[in-house]
Design a protein that fits this description.
The protein is of the alpha/beta class. It is 35% helix and 21% strand. A hairpin with a 5-residue loop joins strand 3 and strand 4 (99-109). Helix 1 packs antiparallel against helix 4.
Length: 263
């Protein structure tokens, strides 16, 4: 009755089913790991953003690599802006998806060290982005800056290529070591996304808080893949039973399990 399972068509179908089951189970575990990673990231970001602000030099120093646990920590710094050495970071978007620049201004601390401060987003003056944009000046004199501590940017982490031969005072990635060489100063590792004081007139546009990743979606995908894995053998057996029934009907007899018991 089930000799048809040895046919080429059914052997291929059975092999495909056997391959799909572990594949879908593995995809479910992958989504579970993504759920755990996103949940942990959301928890870390929330804790960092809600922690009490600390002086920036408690968390970073010249040559220091900002860690994942330090990322997004709220820090404060006292000093003055050095607009003479200000640069802009190319190909950055605002909350509306418009392409422009981030304004990176050296901030000279009271002890002489330099903190890189990302003051926010400004639009490009032209489509080619070859001209230096109009950048509103920051407050003069001694001020206190508050912001989120961020690690140095890399091509591997951001996907942004560090292009050479750019127009004057334009960069692709924020790299404290590179800026230290350019400035000839002791530059703290990483940089700060400014959150206060707010700029006059709303420009540069301050960078918004990082949003939460949709971890529950990965949990739903995990359940979905495992349901698919469970459905494969059920579907395969349903196809087998239908094939038995169709063959029995074609032969003019009932399926074996529907035949009356012998008397």
């Amino acid at each position: 009755m089930y000799r048809f399972l040895l046919s080429r068509q059914w052997v291929i179908l059975t092999l495909v089913a056997l391959l799909l089951i572990p594949t879908m189970i593995r995809l479910g575990f992958w989504q579970m790991h993504r759920y755990d990673e996103r949940s942990a990231r959301n928890q870390q970001v929330s804790e960092a953003l809600h922690a009490d602000p600390v002086p920036v030099e408690r968390l970073t120093s010249p040559g220091h690599a900002v860690t994942g646990e330090q990322k997004y920590r709220i820090v404060t710094a006292r000093g003055s802006y050095d607009t003479a050495h200000e640069v802009v970071v190319r190909r950055r978007t605002n909350s509306d998806g418009e392409v422009g620049y981030h304004v990176l201004t050296p901030f000279v601390l009271t002890d002489g060290k330099v903190l890189l401060v990302n003051r926010g987003w400004v639009p490009a003056n032209d489509r080619s982005q070859s001209a230096f944009p109009e950048v509103p000046a920051p407050p003069r004199g001694q001020v206190t800056v508050t912001g989120r501590l961020m690690p140095d940017e890399t091509t591997a982490a951001s996907g942004i290529k560090d292009l050479k031969g750019l127009p004057d005072r334009q960069i692709m990635l924020i790299d404290s070591a590179e800026q230290a060489r350019r400035l000839g100063a002791r530059v703290l590792g990483g940089y700060v996304q400014q959150t206060a004081p707010e700029p006059k007139g709303g420009t540069p546009q301050l960078i918004s808080d990082p949003g939460s990743e949709d971890a529950p979606l990965n949990y739903a995908y995990m359940i979905q893949w495992w349901l698919f894995a469970a459905a494969v053998p059920v579907g395969w057996w349903a196809l087998v039973r239908r094939e038995v029934r169709d063959r029995a009907q074609a032969a003019g007899q009932k399926p074996a399990d529907a035949e009356p018991a012998a008397v």
